[in-house]
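so the lab meeting is tmrw and i was supposed to have these ready like two days ago... anyway. pasting both below. for each one the top line is the aa sequence and the line under it is the C-alpha cells. i havent really looked at them closely yet so no promises
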Amino acid sequence: MDPVIVVGAGPVGLALSLALVRHGVPSVVLDAGDGEVEPRTARTCVLRPDTAAYVSVLGGARWAAWRAERRRQVVRRVELEAADSPVHLQQYALERLLRATLEREPLARIVTGARLEELEQDAHGVSARTRGSDGTWWRGSHLVGCDGARSTVRKLLRVRFPGRTSVERHAVAALRVELPWDGEALLHRDVPDGGGEVVARPLPNGVWRLDWLLPPRGDLVTPEEVVARIRQTLTAWCDRVPPYELLDTGVHVAHQRLARHWRSGRVFLAGDAARLLGALGTQPVDEGLRDAANLAWKLALCLHGRASEDLLDSYETERRGAAKARLRALDQALPLVRGGGGLRTLLPGGVRGWLDLLTDGHLGRGPLGAPPHYGHSPLTPGRDTLPEAVRVGTEPGALVDDVPVTALDGSRGRLWQRLGRDPLVLLVAPGTHVWDSRHWLSAGLMPKLAAVVGRLPVPADLLVTESYPGAAAHTVLVVRPDGHLVTAFPGARPDDLIACAEVIRGAGIEGAETPTDRADRSAHRP
C-alpha cells in the first residue's frame, strides 16, 4: 500500500498521520522545517474534551470554572466538571507529544527539510516533489495539505481562499503568576482604569495566558506596551502588581477564510489550509483535529478496499459544511459582541447576550463552539434506509455522549477513549457491570449481536454500557470512528446493522460503488 503524503508537521498534520497509523495506513509527513518545535509559551490551544480524548492528550490544564466580570462585578460563573472542561495547553507541547508518539510508529515517517514545490496526480496516486538540488519525488496514494494559512498545496491546486482579514486582534502574554482565581478562566470586560477586555486562562505549572482585545487594525504593539498592560491589569485584579515572571508575548490576529474546495481528486486540504477562524474564542486547532479524525477513517476504508473513493466526498461535505456554519455564526455574532450598543440591545437579556456568545466560543457550546452535527450528511441514514430506527438522547450525525463502556474482553473505560479506530456497536444492557463479561457474553442478545457484528462488511468493535441518555434497555447504537452517531435501533437486528455498515462506507452516496458491487459486477461479466 502506498503511503498517504501529509504536507505539514503542525498539530493537524501529525494528528492525521497518527490517526492513519491507528487504522493501519502508512504515511509520510513532509516537514518543511528542521524538526525542532519552537517552545512559544504564549501560543496555546484549547481542545474540547472529546478532541483531547481522541488525541490522548497528556497534561494540559482543565479549568475548574469559567467566570465573567464587567468592571468590578461578577456577572456569571460556570462550574466545570472534568467531563465538560476544555483542555488548555501550549501548542508546542501538543506538537512534541504527537511527534514523539509518531516517531515510535513503524507505519509513519517524518521527513524534515522537505518543502513542497510541485505535485502531480493520476488515477492511481499522487507524486510530490520537494525542494533540493536535484529534487526528491515522493509517491503516495493520496496527499493532504495541512500546511497552514499560506498553504502551498492550496496554491498549487489553485483553490481560492476568500474571506475577511483581521476581524479580531489581541495582544498576548504568558506569565507565571498567582491570581485570585485558582484554576478558573476569566473573561473581564471593561476592566477598571482603561484595561478594556481581557481573557485570562490558566495553563499547567502556575502559568497564565492573558489576551487583551485590540482594534482590528492598528499600530504594532511594542514589548513596553505589553508590560504596561500586564501591570495595569494585575493592579486591577490584585490591588497591586504581584510578583510575576514574563515568559512570552505576541500578537494574535484572527482572520475568517474558507477554501472553495477541500478535495481535488486525490488531494485534500485540512486545518488552517482549508479554513481560518479564531475570533470570539473559537478554536482553530480543535477544528483541525476534527478534520484529521474525519478524513483518516474514510481514507482507511478506501485504502483497505472496503469502500469506494466516493466515500471521500463526504469529507468536504461534512467538514467544510461545519466550517461554513461556524463562520456564519461568527459573522452573526461579531456585530453583536463588538459592534455598537444598538445591535446588542436586540439580544434577549441585554448584557447577557454578548456574554452568552463569548461563553459559547470559549467553552465549546452553542453555534460558536459546540461539536459539529452531520445530520444532513450522506453518511447519516434517513427513515427510508432504517425505518425501525429509534430516538435516543443523541441525534443521528451528532457527537455521542462519553458513557462508561465494557469491551468483550472485560476491559472497561470511557466511550471516547475507544474512538479513532473501527466503528463501534454499543449495546445498552443494564446490570452488566455487576457480572464478569464471560457470563453475559453468552446470555440475552449478546451471542446473536456478536455474530452479526463479526459478519459486517466493515470491521467493528462491540461494546456494552449500563445506560445511555434517552435509550431504553437493549437499544443498539452504531457509532462512527470519529464519534458521531449513525443511528440507533431496538435489539440485535442483522439487516439494520448491515445497512448501517453500508452507510458508513458510503454506499448511499450518489455514484458510489462498493467493493461488493464491483465483485458482483465482475462475477456477471461475460
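ok protien two:
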Amino acid sequence: MSITMALGAAMSGLTTAQQGLDSVSRNISNVNTKGYTRKIFVQESQVLGGTGVGVRAKALTRNVDESLMRDIRREAAMAGDYSVQTSYYSRIQDSFGTPADNSSIAHRISDLASQFETLGLDVSDITQASNTVNSAADVADQLNRMSQTIQDLRLDADRSIESDVQSVNDLLGRIDTLNAEIVRNQNTFQDTGDLEDQRDQALTDLAGYMDFSYFKRDSGEVILLTTSGSSLLDKNPVTLSHMAVTKTDAGLTYEAGNFNGITANGVDITSQIKGGSIAGYVNMRDTTLAGMQAEIDQLASQMKDALNAAHNRGTPYPELAQTFNGTRTFIDPANQQITLGAGDVQLVLYNADGTQAAQSTLKTELGGSSGSVNDVVDALNSFFTDYNNGTPVTWASVDSDGHVNVAIPSTETVGFAMRDEDAVNAPADMKIAFDSNGDGLTDQTASGFSNFFGLNDFYVNDSANYLYDSNVVSKGWKASTTSAMEIGMTGSPSVATIAIGPQDTIQSIAAKINADPSLAAANITASVVNEGSGVRLRILQNDGKELNVAETTNAGVLSRIGVGPSVSGNSTDIKVRDDLFANPSLLSSGVLQRNADTGQYSLGSGDNSIANALAKVFDSTVKFGETGALAGGTQTFSQYAASILSQSSTAASRMEGQSTTQQTLLDSLTLKQGQTSGVNLDEELTQLIIYQQAYSAAARVITTSTQLFDILNNITT
C-alpha cells in the first residue's frame, strides 16, 4: 500500500470514528427521552479495485422489536379502556356506597319499612306520621341523587369522548407529518431513526385513545386503519368528529340518535372502536351507566306502584280528605274507556266523626260497568250533586293536562272516600280494563279504582309518559302474527297506525315507525335499545308530550313483549306527593268499614290496616324483570336495592383488578422494550472508549503518514 492510500484509509478511519462518537453522544444525551431507541452504528470495509482503502459508516439502525411494539400498542388500548372504566366505577362507588353503608339506598328503604311498622302501632301519632313521610322523602331524594349522578357521569363521558377525538386528530396529523419527513429523508439517503422514534411514540400514544391496525409501506410511511378496516391515515389523515351533547336524561340513548356518533369523514365508526379510552367512555355512557339507570328506575317504579296501590285503598282520618289530584294522564277522555270487573266501587262522603254522610256505588252512578273517562267524572258529579240536594256541582273534573281531579269545597264538612268491593261486599281491588284509544279493545289492565286514576298516590312523578318501552326481548324475536299498532299523543289521539307482520322484528317495527311521515311530523321516533342480553323497542315523543301506544287487534303482540309507558327516568323525579309532604296527616291509615247490619260505612280512628299494608309492601317479594346487568328475579325492595349496589361494587372490584393486571402487563412489555431498544449507559461508555481509541489510532496513522511525506520531501530536496 502506498503512503497516499494509507493516509486515505486513516482519514476514513478518523471520519468513521467521529461518526461513531456522534452516535454514542446522541444515545447518551437521549437516555431519558421518552420513545427514543438506541441507534446502532454499523461500519464496513471500503474496497476499491479489490483493494481495501479504508472504512465507511453505514446508515444508523434502530434496535426495535416491531412485534413487541405491536403487543405494547394492543395492551395500551386495553389499559386505556380499563383505566377509564375503573375511574368511573370509583366515582359511582363514592356516590352509591355499599349495601352496608347507613346512607345507602338499601338502608334507607329498610328504614322506611321500619317507619311504616312503627306508624301501624299508633296511626294517631302525627309525629310518627311526619317521620314516616320524611323517611319516604329521604328514599326519593336518594334515588334522585343516584339518577343525577349517573346522568352527570354520562354527560362527562360524552364530553371526554369529544376531547379524546380531538387528541386523536392531533396525533393523526402528527403521524402524517412524520410520514412525509421520513419518506423525504429516506429518498435522499438521510437518517430517519429519530423521526421513526417520534412516530412510534405517537402511535403508542394513539393506542391509548383507540385501538387500530397498521402496516408500513416500502416508502417508509405508516398506514393506519380501524380494526374493522376503515381508513384512518393513508395519503392524508381522516378527520374524526364528535360533538358532545349539552344535556342528557335517562331516556336518551346513542341508538336513538340522542348522542352523536364518532364519525370519520362523515361515516359513523363508533361501533368499530373496541379499545382505548374512547371505547371506555362509550361503554360507560351507553352500557354500564345506562344499565344502572334502568336498574334504579325499575326499583323506583316498582316501589312507587306497590306503595300507591296500598295507599289508594285507604283514606286519612280524622283528616277530611277533600282534594284528590289524579296522576294518570288521559289524552282523549271523551273516548278513552274503562270497563269495571266484578263487584263495585263504594263512593262515600263521611263526616268529621267518621260516620257516613252519603253513599252510592260507581256502577249505579255510571249506569253500568263501562264508560268513558268523562262518563266517570260525570258519575262522580252525579253522586256529589245528590248529596248537594240535587243542586248541580262539578267537584270532579278533568283538567287541561288530562288528569281527573276531585275538589270538595273547604266550606263543606265532609270528606270523600272510596272502597273497592267484590260481589259480596268484601274489600277487593276493582279490576279495570282500559281501552286507551277507544276502539273497543282492552289495551291495559289495572287493579283498584282510585289507584287507576292515581287519586290518592303516595309517590308521584312530574313528567309525562312521553316514552314507551317494551320488555327486554331476544334480538331474534319475531311477531309471528299479523297485528297493528296505533300511536297517538296529547292533542292528536291517533297520529298513525303501523302494520305488524309475522316476520317483523323489533328492528323492523322501529324502522316502520321512523319511516312514517305522520309520526315524523309529530316528532315521534323509535329506536332499538341494547340492554342486558337482549333489546328493547323504545318509542319517544321528542317534545315531551303524553304518548299513547295501543294495539288495534286481539293478536296481543304488544302485550307479549310488554309495550307500555316506560319506567325510564322514574328515579329522576320521584317524590312524595306535595300536599302529603306538607301535611303528613293526609297519610292513609285505614279503610272504610262496612256495617253488615245497616250497610253503612264509617271510619275509625284506630284503624291501622293501611299503615300495616304499607309496611307489608317492604316484606313482600316482587318480580323484577331483566334490567341492566341484573337478571330477572323475585326479591324484596331492600334486597333489590342491595343487589344494585352489590353488582356495582363487584363490577368495580373486578374492573380495578383487570386494570391493575393490564397495567402490570403493559409495564412489563414496556420494560422489556426498554431493555431491548433503550439506551444502556454502560454499553455506550464502552463504545465511547472503543471509538476514542480508534480515533486516536487513526490520528496517529495520519501523523506518521505526514512524517513519511516530510522525509520524502527532504530527500528530494
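from a quick look at the 2nd one: The first helix runs from residue 3 to 29. Residues 322-455 form one domain. will dig more after coffe
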